[in-house]
Amino acid sequence: MALAAAFAFDQGTKWWIAEVVMQPPQTIPVAPFFNLIFHRNTGVSFGLFAGNGEAGRWALVAVALAVIAMLCVWMIRAERAWVGIALGLVAGGAISNVVDRLRHGGVTDFLDFHYAGWHWPSFNLADAAICVGVALLLLDGFLGERRQETAGIADGRQP
C-alpha cells in the first residue's frame, strides 16, 4: 500500500506541476524559504552524475531496477508492518523516479527550499518518500538493537 501511495502521489504531483502549474515554466514563490520550480534532473541525488548521456541514463535505470527488486524481496519478507511500510515508501519513490527517467529522460523536481541565498537541491515527493522510508529503516535498526539488548537482559543472556 505504501509503495502504491508513494508512486501515485509522486506521479500525480509531477504531472500537475509540469502540465498545469508550470505553463509556462517559472519560479513561484510560496513562502520566504520555499519556491515551486520546474527542473529535470538527469543525474542522481543532488544532480550527481548528470551529463552522462543515454548510456548514463540507462545505467541509472538498471541500477535502480536492481535495487527496487531487492527492496521488494525484503518488503515481502519483512516481519514488522512498519518495516514493510518503510520499504514500500523507498521502492515506490524509486519506481516513480525510474518512470520519469524512462518517459522524460530525467527526474522531475519542483520543490525548492532556500535560506539567505543558499538553495537545497530541488527535489520531489518520491525523494521525500525515499528519505522518510530510509529514516524509518534506520529507526527500526536502532530500536531492533535495543529490543535485542532488552530481551537478552530479561532472559539472563546478558549481564
TrEMBL record:
- Keyword list, A-Z: Aspartyl protease, Cell membrane, Hydrolase, Membrane, Protease, Transmembrane, Transmembrane helix
Q: What is its EC number?
A: 3.4.23.36
Catalytic residue list = D109, D127
List the GO molecular function terms. aspartic-type endopeptidase activity
Origin superkingdom: Bacteria
Name the membrane topology term. Multi-pass membrane protein
Question: What does the UniProt function comment say about this protein?
Answer: This protein specifically catalyzes the removal of signal peptides from prolipoproteins.
- The name under which this protein is listed is Lipoprotein signal peptidase
Q: Which organism is it from?
A: Belnapia rosea
Lineage runs: Bacteria, Pseudomonadati, Pseudomonadota, Alphaproteobacteria, Acetobacterales
